[in-house]
Amino acid sequence: MGYFESEKNVQDYINMVEGYDSTDLINILRKYLKNDSTLLELGMGPGKDLDILRKYFKVTGSDSSQIFVNRYKKIHSESNILQIDATDIKIQQKFDCIFSNKVLIHLKKEECKSSFKQQKNILNPKGILFHTFWYGTKTEKHHGLLFTYYTEDYLRKMVEEYYNIIRLERYSEMEKDDSILLVLQNKE
Q1: Predicted structure pTM score
Q2: Count of domains in the chain?
């Protein structure tokens, strides 16, 4: 059973992210993506980012956890929400943008690379990827949940075959320069 297939773990996570606001990140995204563009959020969790994103874009939310999917649909029954895994992303739709905020960090490095390959398949020509990561070189587990850290060089090597790098830089979330912002454009 996955970490987020437990009601207790889902509730613990919701409590942990209470008060976190990613408006600044979404404002950066808006510099690269026109309003009303189609966007898939990978790993929406409780839907805090999705609530902000839907103000500007035609959004589809997704999560591998049926609990998160059900909770969000219960409040926002009109929303397009999918249960998909960020590694293989088995859907037919295409999007102008794929967004995740510290979601791909829960994948092993080879799974993350596979995810980038799969994202290319559902991204429109000239489409944008917008992902954030924790900065570093370690891999660790907290309460059974995997956290994989990345460097700019590692991410660059992982994606440069498939995407043009628009923006790759460190930013501060909890500590100085503890995070990486990655904005990519689909190569044709």
Answers
A1: 0.93
A2: 1
